[in-house]
Amino acid sequence: MSSSQSPQNPSTDSSRRDFLKSATMAGAAAAAVTTGSGPLILNASDKAGSKRARVGQGEFVYECDHHFGEVPDHVRWGDTHGVCVDEAGLIYVKHRQKTDEPMDAIVVFDADGKFVRSFGKEYHGGGHGIDVRKEGGEEFLYLSNTSRGTTAKTTLTGEQVWVKEVPQESGKYDNGEKYSPTNICFGPDGGFYIGDGYGSSYLHQYDKNDNYVRTWGGKGREAGEMSTPHGQWLDNRAGRDPSLVVADRANGRMQYFTLDGEHIEFMYDVLFPADVDIRGDILMVPDLHARISLFDKNNTLITHLGDDAAWRKKVLDGFKVRQHPEDWQDGKFIHPHDAAFDHDGNIYVAEWVPTGRISFLRHVG
After folding, report:
1. Model pLDDT for residues 273-290, shown as the tens digit of each residue
2. Which of 191, 213, 215, 211 is nearest to 203 (CA)?
3. pLDDT tens-digit series, residues 194-209
């Protein structure tokens, strides 16, 4: 385990074929998308930069800082894939850099964007999902590493508790089927669920003792099947039976399951959903097709943050925009790959761009 601490400061996923296919369809449809859900950019930043763009509407308006985090000299951002916030309010970012020399894949900032620490050279080249859970009196990180086909549990400073490889107990990988886990979410009983998003599109359940329980899913479009289950979350909002909501990305939908894997329903009004987070009654979906969506406790759309059909069409046109930071615009997203609420309802957004980008959306509505 490598760990670094110092002050100050930027491929393609294995599912890119699905991404390109879905994005082509979304790009063709983008011109027909209307913006009837309300204002998209409420206050664009002026040329002097004295004002920051605002996105959203009503009680859900956010001021955008697209340059969060003082990246230390020993780290050069790659694709910023994952973000989470611990109990103390520290922000953990997991990125994928493919330099010959390994570098720390996890960088930690305080709420002011000051560098705190970094670690995780062992995840270099495969940095993807990251989330945090308190167990007893201690918090732990759960990490997904796509290039190595592993998941890991570590302390908040990177000491490994365990590493899991292909779940052979499932019987789904006996003939060499691909396994490439993208995200982990937590069950109400202390167990957890691993999504094989870039592999064979299964969900794998483990109990509170880290033992394998069951597998379901597999690639397809029928109920219970998935295509790139890229992220998942426990939905235990008030008034709902606890269930799993999955970002069924390449199928362009969300899918709900019981905690033991039975299909419940689909949820739409998403384009290419990448992950999920929930705070209070609000469900948030970072969407790789240039927006972030907020839904109420009944999963009725509240607003699409940063939604702009013309901008999306440009972003999806050969995916050239992600390579050119000089073309990025305040109040617009390129490819939101993960997003997390902090304790005050602000949002941190990690985007799939080769220079990396973390945006801080301050709740002002």
Report:
1. 999 999 999 999 999 999
2. 215
3. 999 999 999 999 999 9
CA atoms of 266 and 249, how far apart (whole Å): 12
Taking alpha carbons only, the member of 349, 355, 352, 293 closest to residue 319 is 352
CA separation for the pair 321, 8 (Å, rounded): 27
HEC letters along the chain: CCEECCCCCCCCCCCHHHHHHHHHHHHHHHCCCCCCCCCCECCCCCCCCCCCCEEEECCEEEEEECCCCCCCCCCCCCEEEEEEECCCCCEEEEEECCCCCCCCCEEEECCCCCEEEEECHHHCCCEEEEEEEEECCEEEEEEEECCCCEEEEEECCCCEEEEECCCHHHCCCCCCCCCCCCEEEECCCCCEEEECCCCCCEEEEECCCCCEEEEEECECCCCCCECCEEEEEEECCCCCCCEEEEEEHHHCEEEEECCCCCEEEEECCCCCECCCEEECCEEEEEECCCEEEEECCCCCEEEEECCCHHHHHHHHCCCCHHHCHHHCCCCCCCCEEEEEECCCCCEEEEECCCCCCEEEEEECC
Q: How many C-beta atoms surround the C-beta of residue 48 within 10 A?
A: 6
* pLDDT-based confidence at residue 15 (cuts at 50, 70, 90): very low
Distance, CA of 36 to CA of 96 (rounded, Å): 36
Contact in structure between 297 and 238 (CB atoms under 8 Å): yes
Q: State the pTM of this model.
A: 0.88
